[in-house]
């Protein structure tokens, strides 16, 4: 298809995620045509460093030969077969074993596959309810989550999402879902002391559990570091305190690791950042480096033992998808996992990210419209504000974030805008020289724009 035809048809026949169809037709999406390593080219040949890793997912870059070769080999061997009751295939067996092995420190016993992060969350919510039913606690059906949390777009995930924008168009949602504050240091009404904030929000979780009735609460779900909500890093004491609260009341802890899993924080899994094990983990994105859609729900031994001990038939997992553990996706994930471990990609992130984080924090000192720069590892959010002294938020009508993104694009950097936040999540294999280019380009883009 010619470039002219692509431009003509752009946004005419597709509704894009998280966008109004008319808005996409009025301001046509950028057409990304090629990728190599940490770089992408648009249809006009304009080269940019991929500051968003596709969408938190292209962790090994866009031209990882071993992943590509594993995909091709699997297509030649077996392009598809299902894993429903009674059949499976070699890659599903190998990948499930590999994931359980790498998550031995987490106490994982088994995994269940889907097609992406939303599927992984849906699976975790269902398994949490079923776990309690098998233990004779049939009233434990409620979920507690955090404001600003993002957990996908299925009805279960939307119901525990903590952002009104994702919920409002589809309400009423799943009943029995409740929210507490996020331990967000920059925007909270309690304290600017991190440890105190961790204690306050963990106590809020406990009060909500007690208020709802502990015997009615199935699970608490949270991201180890909130991603789409603005890259909110919790205080170091928060997750350990949450684990204690959940244990005290028999509530399962679900770690949504769709973004943080597989190295983005400088640890292979985000819960390792806080020294805490969950009961269920939601995995996707980096599991296959984005090459083929795949998601997984990892199940702890504590949860798996209850299913294994069931003799009533109530432990049958009546959940799954036609493409669960798709052979091509599983092959891509096996190749990805091999590289992550053999090349110590998480260690590389831990080594290069501190300078990245430190340098871009300087934007808040140089630009009055930058309120906060926060993040960990290779995930960073820059919150733009109307007034840095009062921390007044940008008006929703402000085009400042979009203008910044366009300035970065012109200079050779792809960033993502989410509300008032400019978000960066480059491929995990990015080099120090490439990070230097990314930072220099972003700094120049900030110099290009002024608030209106």
What are the main properties of this structure?
452 residues; alpha/beta; Aspartate Aminotransferase, domain 1; Aspartate Aminotransferase, domain 2; 7-stranded mixed beta sheet
Describe the structure.
This protein is of the alpha/beta class. The chain has two domains: 31-63 and 344-448, Aspartate Aminotransferase, domain 1, CATH 3.90.1150.10; 68-342, Aspartate Aminotransferase, domain 2, CATH 3.40.640.10. It is built from 17 helices and 16 strands. It has helices at residues 3-9, 21-26, 53-56, 65-77, 90-102, 117-134, 155-160, 164-167, 194-212, 238-249, 270-274, 301-309, 327-342, 345-361, 363-366, 400-411, 432-448, and strands spanning 32-36, 39-42, 47-50, 108-114, 142-146, 177-180, 217-222, 252-256, 280-283, 295-300, 370-376, 379-387, 392-393, 413-414, 416-418, 421-424. The strands form three sheets. The protein has a seven-stranded mixed beta sheet with strand order 4-10-9-8-7-5-6, with helices on both faces. Strand 2 and strand 3 form a beta hairpin. Helix 5 packs parallel to helix 13 and helix 16 crosses helix 17 (432-448). It is globular, with a radius of gyration of 22 Å. The chain starts with a helix and ends with a helix.
């Amino acid at each position: 298809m010619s470039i002219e035809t692509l431009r003509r048809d752009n946004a005419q026949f597709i509704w894009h995620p998280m966008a109004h169809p008319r808005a996409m037709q009025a301001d046509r999406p950028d057409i990304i045509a090629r990728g190599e390593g940490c770089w992408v080219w648009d249809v006009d040949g304009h080269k940019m460093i991929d500051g968003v890793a596709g969408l938190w997912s292209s962790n090994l870059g866009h031209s990882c030969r071993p992943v590509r070769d594993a995909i091709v080999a699997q297509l030649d061997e077996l392009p598809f077969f299902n894993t429903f009751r009674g059949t499976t295939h070699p890659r599903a067996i190998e990948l499930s074993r590999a994931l359980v092995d790498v998550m031995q420190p987490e106490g994982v016993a088994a995994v269940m596959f889907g097609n992406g992060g939303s599927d992984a969350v849906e699976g975790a919510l269902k398994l949490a309810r079923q776990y309690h039913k098998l233990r004779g606690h049939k009233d434990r059906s409620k979920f507690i989550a955090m404001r600003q949390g993002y957990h996908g777009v299925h009805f279960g995930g939307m119901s525990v999402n903590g952002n009104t924008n994702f919920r409002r168009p589809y309400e009423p949602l799943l009943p029995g879902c409740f929210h507490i504050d996020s331990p967000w240091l920059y925007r909270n009404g309690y304290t600017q002391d991190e440890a105190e904030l961790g204690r306050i929000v963990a106590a809020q979780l406990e009060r909500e559990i007690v208020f709802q009735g502990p015997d009615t609460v199935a699970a608490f779900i949270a991201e180890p570091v909130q991603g789409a909500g603005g890259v909110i890093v919790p205080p170091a004491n928060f997750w350990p305190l949450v684990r204690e609260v959940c244990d005290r009341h028999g509530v399962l802890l679900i770690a949504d690791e769709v973004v943080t899993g597989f190295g983005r924080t400088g640890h292979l899994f985000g819960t390792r950042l806080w020294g805490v094990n969950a009961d269920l983990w939601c995995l996707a994105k980096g599991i296959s480096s984005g090459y083929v859609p795949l998601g997984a729900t990892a199940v702890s031994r504590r949860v798996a033992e209850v299913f294994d001990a069931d003799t009533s038939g109530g432990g049958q997992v009546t959940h799954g998808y036609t493409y669960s553990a798709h052979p091509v996706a599983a092959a891509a994930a096996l190749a990805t996992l091999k590289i992550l471990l053999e090349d110590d990609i998480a260690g590389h992130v831990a080594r290069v990210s501190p300078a990245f984080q430190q340098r871009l924090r300087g934007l808040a000192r140089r630009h009055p419209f930058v309120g906060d720069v926060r993040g960990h590892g290779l995930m960073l959010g820059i919150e733009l504000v109307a007034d840095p002294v009062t921390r007044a938020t940008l008006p929703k009508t402000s085009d400042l974030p979009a203008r910044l993104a366009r300035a970065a694009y012109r200079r050779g950097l792809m960033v993502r805008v989410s509300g008032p936040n400019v978000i960066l999540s480059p491929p995990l294999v990015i080099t120090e020289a490439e990070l230097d280019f990314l930072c220099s380009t972003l700094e120049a883009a900030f110099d290009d724009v002024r608030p209106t």
